[in-house]
Amino acid sequence: VEAMNVRLAAEGQPPLLQEELVGGRLYTGPMYEKYNTVLRSASGNAYLVGKNKSLCQGNTYVTTIHAINSCVLKLSKLMDVCAIWRGMTRGQLPDGFWTPNRHGTCGGVEYGFSSTTAERAQALHYAQGVASTVFEMRQGMIDRGADFSWLSQYPFEREILYPPLLGIEATGSRVDKTTLVIDARLSLNMMSETLDEVLTKRFRLLKGLCDNIKLEIERALGGALWKVLFGGTGVDVPTLKEVVRKRAHEQLNEAYAGEPHLFNNDAKLQSVIEASLTIGEDVQWVRSIVLLDAAQVMEQ
User: Fold this and answer.
1) What are the structural domains of the chain?
2) How far apart are CA 143 and CA 166, in angstroms?
3) What is the pTM of this model?
4) I need a labelling partner for 167 at 20 to 30 A (CA). Which of 18, 108, 257, 289 fits?
5) What is the largest CA-CA distance in the chain?
6) CB distance 147 to 79 below 8 Å
7) Record's superkingdom (predicted)?
8) How far apart are CA 37 and CA 108, in angstroms?
């Protein structure tokens, strides 16, 4: 784990959390079926909905699934691009996988996690039986999976795991003996977030708000209107503007100071947002006074 975190740090990525490690390890064992059953039942397929009801008994494993997904997203940043395979049997791909839609694309979306392997023989092993099918894919610069072999309960499988909602587009097919081999292109779900990103979402929202208020403050301090109002009064206008700017920025920076998780408290977040908006409104109010007085000066 320490070695992986060193590599992640070198890539500018956050370290793996204990929850992510536990989730990832659990997925590589028999629990994977329950996690994927929950996810796949979201498709609305009657068989999958029924299987979810009987197998999972109402459990949704939300936290665990998020932890596994986060683990995959982080480890994918370390993945070296290579060819990967996925074997399956006793299944039939829907017509939409082969027939182009009105946009000229064909394929499908995997609702669950997608287990692939860097070992072709492993994919062929899982494809033994009726309706033997093997997907042959190559990862891209962005569409990379996560090497789970070091974390897996079955490291010899050389598992490369992908997060839910993976797009799989067929680019060609051929028959190898009794196995249908499908050449496919992958499209990663770019909306997925790590646990770190989910837990700091409110903090990032607040920081974005404060950054926007700073831009509004710069607009309020711009122009020559302040000089029109204070000209002849002996007030150093540039210094006055800088004092207003500095104080407002200090207050806004103080607003989101502290650990990001603190802002997951509703009361804390509400009070900080209200205080931040007030700071911006105060500067806008000063600008309004400047505009009003400047207009009066010009009338005279």
Assistant:
1) 2-195 (3.90.176.10), 200-299 (no CATH)
2) 9
3) 0.82
4) 18
5) 95
6) yes
7) Eukaryota
8) 17
